[in-house]
Write a structure and sequence with these properties.
CATH superfamily of the largest domain: Nascent polypeptide-associated complex domain
Radius of gyration: 27 Å
Largest sheet: 3 strands, antiparallel
Shape: elongated
Distance between the termini: 85 Å
Oligomer: single chain
CATH topology of the largest domain: Ubiquitin Ligase Nedd4, Chain: W
Strand content: 25-35%
CATH architecture of the largest domain: Single Sheet
Number of helices: 5
Helix content: 40-55%
Strand order of the largest sheet: 1-4-5
Number of strands: 6
Number of domains: 2
Order of helices and strands: HHEEEEEEHHH
C-alpha cells in the first residue's frame, strides 16, 4: 500500500493509467511469444541471447524490439560457405562475358567463391 501511495505522490501512473496514456500517444506494446533465441550480429561477433522476453513497441508506425532477460553468450560470426558447384546460369553468363569454355568459367567461379564479377575479371585479365 505504501508503494502505491509513493507512486501516486511522484506522479507515476499505474498499470491502467499507463496503458491509457500509451494508447493516447499512439503506442502499442505486444509480447512476442515462443522466442527461443535472439542473435545480434556485428562485424566481429554474434551476441546470442537464449530464452529472452521480447516485446514489440509500435510508436506511430515505427516498430522497436525490447529484449529482456535470458542467458547471454558471444560467438564468432559464421561465414557463409561458398557454393560447391556454380549455378549453370552463372557459368553461362561468365562464358558469354569472357568467351571462355564452360569448364574455364566454372573453375574461375569456384576460385572466386561464386562471385561473378571476380570470375569475369580474372578470366579477362588472363586473356590480356
Amino acid at each position: 500500500m505504501a508503494y502505491k501511495a509513493l507512486k501516486a505522490a511522484r506522479g507515476v501512473p499505474g498499470g491502467r493509467d499507463a496503458a491509457r496514456m500509451m494508447q493516447k500517444m499512439g503506442m502499442k506494446m505486444d509480447e512476442v511469444p515462443d522466442v527461443s533465441s535472439v542473435i545480434i550480429r556485428t562485424g566481429t561477433k554474434d551476441i546470442v541471447i537464449e530464452e529472452p522476453n521480447v516485446t514489440t513497441i509500435n510508436i506511430q508506425g515505427q516498430t522497436m524490439y525490447q529484449i529482456a532477460g535470458g542467458r547471454v553468450s558471444e560467438a564468432q560470426p559464421q561465414q557463409p560457405s561458398a557454393p560447391s558447384t556454380p549455378l549453370d546460369a552463372d557459368v553461362e553468363l561468365v562464358v558469354q562475358q569472357t568467351g571462355k569454355t564452360p569448364e574455364e568459367a566454372k573453375k574461375a567461379l569456384l576460385e572466386a567463391g561464386g562471385d561473378l564479377a571476380k570470375a569475369i575479371l580474372s578470366l579477362k585479365q588472363k586473356s590480356s
